[in-house]
Amino acid sequence: MRLRLLDGLLGCLGLLSLVYLPTIACSYLSVTCRESLASEETLGESITYGELGYRAFGKTGRFVTEVIIVVAQCAGSIAYLVFIGQNIDSVFPDLGLSLASYVFMLVPVEIGLTWIGSLSALAPFSIFADVCNVLAMGIVVKEDVQLAIEGGFSFGERTTITSNIGGLPFAAGMAIFCFEGFGMTLALENSMQDRAKFPILLAQTFGGITLVYILFGFSGYMAFGEETRDIVTLNLPRNWSSIAVQVGLCLGLMFTFPIMLHPVNEIVEEKLTKIICRNNYDSTRLRSVDIYISRAIVVVVLAVVASFVPQFGIFASFVGSTLCAMLSFVLPATFHLKLFGSSLRFWQKALDSIVLFCGLFFAVYGTYNAIVGV
Question: A GO molecular-function term, please (predicted)?
């Protein structure tokens, strides 16, 4: 039993480490590129991912980069809505409402939250969301451990190593999706008062999140085995503690939703501002109205898409395998090679190239695997 416990922990640790290490490395690459370009007097401090794409590959680079960011962040936000909707449906099964009904109940709240302009103003909501998530995860782990101990199953039934590797791309896609906030890296670094502390803070945060994911996933699988659902809270027994967990996680994601949309709003509003200025409109008043309208439209569109998502797990793995892999691995490595290739050492070029090609391969294969699995 101890060997199987150890194997399970090592398996979780190995898979997430394969995602954590390149993710944190690519985050540093993005920050390094931003800092190098920001030091140029003509560019100032407002360096975004789109600006990195422009400096590397011109207008095409900016367009492709911003499209990937918008679609990736929107897909992550859609996954949040699906998660919340399915959990609310589990809490109130007797109502007989559809997933779309629960999702659209969130729309007014999310629109109001997205109207909050800055990340600093969203900080209290983010802290509250973190508290809800931590408490809920703690209760889930406690329930899982209790079920594992009292369930009367044999640890021998928990397969830690399998000859069937077909599920690895799905699992890896889910692991990458766990770090789907990569598009927030530059925005968060830009919002800090002391940017010099950002790399250390980022490493500590990613490390802590990785440990939580390992404990969360391992304890859930030990409790439910092959019957573990893509949303593990749906496995929990019907009692008050389980309902508290689901409500807590839903509140946490509800208040995290506007933060996920922040990069999307930045890109959309930048385009709107250019259109307004180009047509010589009253930019101050019209821009404020357009911002509110555009943010509301984005939320409504995402809610519509979320109502048609068939399964949370397949959708999350697909997003992780494609968009998140491109955003987290391919783009940072490509920018670093293009912008600083002549000054890089051989091992740096080799490392960037490995990350780039592995990211592309995984994106292609992961996409195929996710489509076949639908």
Answer: L-amino acid transmembrane transporter activity
